[in-house]
Amino acid sequence: MTPVFKKEFLGYFRSPVGYVILAAFHFAVIALALYFGYYRNSQATLFTLFVRLPWVLAIFIPAVGMRLWSEEKRSGSIELLFTLPISPRSAVVAKFLAALCFICVGLCLTFSLAITTSYLGDPDWGVIFSGYIGAALTSAAFLAITAACSALTKNQVIALVLSILICVLSTLIGSDWLAQFLANKVPTGMLDVLRLFSFEQHFEAMSRGLIDISAISFYVTLTLAFLGINMVVIER
């Protein structure tokens, strides 16, 4: 399992693509935070960073994970992989953890804004770390979805488009914008049910400093479910 993890993780840094993705992610997150009022009313706050983060992750994560299995299937190296003394389950977990660690590197780069905030004021570090925990859990769930999509096809573009579609819809499904749009079209109870499956709603609670057990359970359950789908597809 360890050799597969090292191969996948270091593979992101052996080509310019990994650095381009990290740079683009860092620029997008910081730019959106500044655009939506990072320093407003003489107060520096990370709320604008976290409030848009799920939408950036919905694009960034599929770009990172689209190659996990589709590239192996396209090049034929998947047969070579399973001639090694490693089970499909271990291979799925190793690839997933390698990509997740790379994503965490991207999240760590945005911590520069938290340091800037501490210089400009006196932020609540509990809220900041809660937000980053929520970001990591959201990333894990999005990555599990992307890995399952990547296992279904040999084409990285198809895996990218399919996983972005699922991630964006799962973020949009409980948003305030959609709730206002559907307010007079569907029963209120249905809107409440949709919110239970919304990434944005679960992440918002954690971005405000609340370590919500229901949100953690949602992310962990969804991550394990899609990793299970990934394992089933690979084993077949």
UniProtKB/TrEMBL annotation:
The membrane-spanning stretches of this chain are: 16-38, 44-65, 96-119, 125-145, 157-179, 216-234
Q: Name one Pfam family in it.
A: ABC2_membrane_2
InterPro entries linked to this entry: ABC-2_transporter_component
The question of whether Membrane is a record keyword is answered with yes
Per the record, its GO cellular-component terms are: plasma membrane
List the subcellular locations.
Cell membrane
| Membrane topology category | Multi-pass membrane protein
Query: Which species does the entry assign this protein to?
Result: Pelagicoccus mobilis
**Name of the protein in question:** ABC transporter permease subunit
